[in-house]
Amino acid sequence: MAVARVTEIISGSQKGFKDAIEQGIDRANKTLKNVEGAWVKDQSIILDKGKIKEYRVVMKVTFVLDD
Q1: pLDDT tens profile 15-28
Q2: Quick one: which H or E segment has residue 24?
Q3: 50: alpha, beta or left, given left = phi > 0 and alpha = psi -120 to 50?
Q4: Which segments does the entry list as coiled coil (predicted)?
Q5: pTM of the complete model
Q6: Residue 31: how many CB atoms within 10 A of its CB?
Q7: How many other C-beta atoms are found inside a 10 Å radius of the C-beta of residue 57?
């Protein structure tokens, strides 16, 4: 039986939400072993003088713990 853990991460991108998700998952894979999935909990944008400066996502990342 596998045991998994969920951790919340925030990732940002100047390109878009898809890029923010991909950067967050890439970074999670560098630190966490056995990443199995992710759920995008929230999306937001940061504005600067009415223009989009950054796209941000809050994700819950699931990874399986080693035996």
Answers
A1: 999 999 999 999 99
A2: helix 17-31
A3: left
A4: none
A5: 0.89
A6: 11
A7: 22
